[in-house]
Automatic annotation (TrEMBL), chain A:
<feature type="region of interest" description="Disordered">
    <location>
        <begin position="1"/>
        <end position="24"/>
    </location>
</feature>
<feature type="transmembrane region" description="Helical">
    <location>
        <begin position="340"/>
        <end position="360"/>
    </location>
</feature>
<feature type="transmembrane region" description="Helical">
    <location>
        <begin position="125"/>
        <end position="145"/>
    </location>
</feature>
<keyword id="KW-0813">Transport</keyword>
<feature type="transmembrane region" description="Helical">
    <location>
        <begin position="183"/>
        <end position="205"/>
    </location>
</feature>
<keyword id="KW-0472">Membrane</keyword>
<keyword id="KW-1003">Cell membrane</keyword>
<feature type="transmembrane region" description="Helical">
    <location>
        <begin position="311"/>
        <end position="333"/>
    </location>
</feature>
<keyword id="KW-1133">Transmembrane helix</keyword>
Automatic annotation (TrEMBL), chain B:
<keyword id="KW-0813">Transport</keyword>
<dbReference type="InterPro" id="IPR003593">
    <property type="entry name" value="AAA+_ATPase"/>
</dbReference>
<keyword id="KW-1278">Translocase</keyword>
<keyword id="KW-0067">ATP-binding</keyword>
<dbReference type="GO" id="GO:0005524">
    <property type="term" value="F:ATP binding"/>
</dbReference>
<keyword id="KW-0547">Nucleotide-binding</keyword>
<dbReference type="InterPro" id="IPR017871">
    <property type="entry name" value="ABC_transporter-like_CS"/>
</dbReference>
<dbReference type="Pfam" id="PF00005">
    <property type="entry name" value="ABC_tran"/>
</dbReference>
<feature type="domain" description="ABC transporter">
    <location>
        <begin position="10"/>
        <end position="242"/>
    </location>
</feature>
Length: 371, 283
């Protein structure tokens, strides 16, 4: 190869630039390591505190003791309250575990969507994938579908979510990317349609099903059970692992579809695979917790601001950050009002709505119009 | 390192493209060999970029395209990524990747091969060659159009392919960087690579190309060394504008200029009047 003839740029080329390059690269590496560590530590602390907080209070070290005791390690004290241990294992732990999984799933789904849409505003809630999945789930409830046992509602949510994703993807893209206006307007249309469907199902449903559907629309982790966790866990594990394997290709896709193809990426396969991943992750989250919007928008965006857009570290940080956000938000939802369980979807939208607006304005300003 | 045996690095035979009932290319044949810079020139809408996208595989066509003697469809995307690099006119990046990260993406096809180990050296050399060193840690979307184009050029240089396909690489660049891009292209060709470049500046094509393919109305109208293709009658006909072809007094390369009316009024400030301005009414 012929990159031999060099033209030293005055003052910047040659040897003087070598240490600078090293520091810039290693600085980013340190930054990523710090972020992962901080997020990981905060997640552990938040999970212990969340599990111990509620009508029956358990100190964080006793929560740790309860977990470790089951693993045969007795370094920490067991819960002092006689019902503490069983309250933790039957009510709190499944709820915290589900919050972690769903937060990770939503953040990962958001990041994948942004990568394949080439647009930082893409998110399952905003573009209507979540409400599509909720429509599928509520159909399963109303018609009493039980074809796959515990998995029935999840599968219905996944199927409808997949349809919604395909629809949005097919309608809103032009020349390999999605303009902001198109994306938002498509989201309005899909959300309106899914809203109408939900309204119809509520009209048709009996009182019990109607309550279940309202719960979907608001989003809540109330009543999380271990079987739910064991349905969501494999789906999230598979989805996030697959996204990790694809992350380098998402980087290349940022160059545009054609350039990515010229670098050896099978863009069509990547797109279809990613749409299935988004539907899987969103469907799993929505099936048990309803519509929890904006997690997939806020978290990847914040993480990108801290560690840059490279998708492998971004995905790791986003899953950790999404889990942390949802565990914390659920803690607030459970404890902000005494004796009441606020819908968590309301909380995330309360923060996410203004954030989305800010992002929209900033994107608009930067693009010099509604680009 | 490019070209297998005697087969040309790339060959297009009887290519035809029709989009929505409009013929874009008709029966186009041309080939490019290792060691040469081939310039594709022609008026707007002649089909230059379409022809290039036929070669890259982005545009389906009738006829056949061969890379190093093998039909385009028989190559895997990854193999192609190691064999030919493409610089498109659109050089944006959707997310704020730094210049260095973007150039590193050019190494993607070599991932998992022994040449993977060379990544850092190749990336640094490509950045230096395109004079992007001081922008290395800047986010690409924050750069000017010309700087973005150079970052993309650095990326495809880092791809280390024997074939380079460049679609108007000089469009966003200033005078010096235009020269740099073509000098780099010629150096690569001298070292055995094959470079196909779409150009609008005919004098640039004359100075740097070993061969020029002139395209008009979707067909090749001339294919040969610059002196044979860049003639006043041919260019005047194709561009529908009277042009003159002069020789540089020192190098002897062709310089192509439109025939412009001499400033008419005595003592008028000559450079401010362009030939397209209708004659002023004189009192």
């Amino acid at each position: 190869m012929t990159l031999t003839e060099r033209k030293a740029e005055p003052g910047t080329g040659g040897a003087s630039s070598e240490p600078r390059k090293a520091t810039a690269k290693s600085r980013m590496r340190v930054r990523r390591a710090v972020l992962f560590t901080v997020l990981g530590a905060l997640l552990v602390v938040a999970a212990l505190v969340a599990a111990g907080t509620g009508q029956l209070g358990v100190a964080p070290d006793e929560v740790l003791g309860s977990i470790m005791n089951r693993l045969g390690i007795t370094l920490w004290p067991m819960p002092s309250h006689p019902n503490g241990d069983s309250a933790l294992w039957t009510i709190r732990f499944p709820r915290v575990a589900l919050a972690i999984l769903v937060g990770a799933a939503l953040a990962a789904a958001g990041m994948i969507m942004q990568a394949i849409f080439g647009n930082p505003l893409a998110e399952p809630g905003v573009v209507g994938v979540s409400s599509g999945a909720a429509l599928g789930a509520s159909a399963a409830i109303v018609f009493g579908a039980n074809f796959l046992g515990d998995w029935s509602i999840a599968v219905a949510a996944f199927g409808a979510g997949l349809l919604a994703t395909l629809l949005v993807y097919g309608v809103s893209r032009a020349n390999g990317k999605t303009e902001v206006v198109t994306l938002v307007l498509t989201g309005i249309a899909v959300n309106a349609f899914a809203g109408a469907g939900l309204a119809l199902f509520m009209f048709l449903a009996d009182t019990q099903s109607r309550e279940a559907i309202v719960f979907w629309q608001l989003g809540s982790l109330n009543g999380a059970r271990w079987p739910d966790v064991f349905v969501v866990l494999p789906v999230v594990a598979v989805g996030v692992t697959a996204a990790l394997l694809l992350s380098r290709r998402y980087d290349l896709l940022s160059l545009g579809e054609k350039s990515a193809r010229h670098l050896g990426v099978n863009v069509e396969a990547l797109r279809i695979g990613s749409i299935v991943l988004v539907a899987l992750l969103t469907g799993a989250a929505v099936a048990f917790c309803g519509i929890i919007a904006f997690v997939g928008l806020v978290i990847p965006h914040l993480m990108r601001m801290i560690i840059g857009p490279a998708h492998l570290p971004l995905l790791i940080a986003s899953t950790l950050g999404g889990a942390l956000l949802l565990v914390s938000a659920d803690l607030v939802a459970r404890t902000a009002v005494p004796m009441a369980d606020l819908p968590i979807g309301m909380l995330t939208s309360l923060i996410g709505g203004p954030f989305f607006f800010w992002l929209l304005r900033r994107t608009r300003k930067r693009a010099g119009g509604w680009g | 390192m490019s070209g297998a045996g005697t087969a040309p690095a790339l060959r297009v035979s009887a290519a035809g493209v029709e989009i929505d009932g409009t013929r874009i290319l008709t029966d186009v044949s041309f080939s490019a060999h290792a060691g040469e810079v081939v310039a594709l020139i022609g008026p707007n809408g002649a089909g230059k970029s379409t022809l290039l996208s036929v070669v890259t595989g982005d545009q389906a066509s009738t006829g056949s395209v061969e890379i190093a003697g093998r039909a385009l469809g028989d190559w895997s995307l990854k193999e192609l990524g190691r064999r030919r690099a493409v610089l498109l006119q659109q050089t944006g990046v959707f997310f704020p990747f730094t210049v260095r990260e973007v150039v590193e993406m050019g190494r993607a096809p070599w991932q998992g091969t022994p040449r993977d180990l060379d990544d850092d050296r190749v990336v640094e050399e490509s950045i230096e060659l395109t004079e992007m060193t001081r922008f290395r840690d800047r986010a690409v979307p924050s750069l000017s159009g010309g700087e973005r184009a150079r970052a993309s050029l650095a990326r495809i240089l880092a791809q280390e392919t024997g074939i380079l396909l460049l679609d108007e690489p000089t469009a966003a660049l200033d005078l010096r960087h235009q020269e740099d891009v073509l000098r780099i292209s010629r150096d690569r060709a001298r070292a055995g690579d094959c470079v196909v470049v779409v150009l609008h500046d005919l004098s640039l094509a004359a100075a740097y190309a070993d061969r020029i393919v002139l395209i008009d109305g979707g067909s090749v109208v001339a294919d040969g060394p610059p002196d044979a293709v860049l003639t006043a009658p041919l260019l005047s006909h194709v561009y529908e504008l009277p042009v003159e072809v002069m020789r540089h007094p020192v190098t002897g390369t062709a310089i192509v200029l439109p025939l412009r009316a001499a400033p008419d009024a005595v003592g008028a400030p000559a450079p401010t009047v362009s030939a397209s301005v209708p004659p002023r009414e004189t009192a």
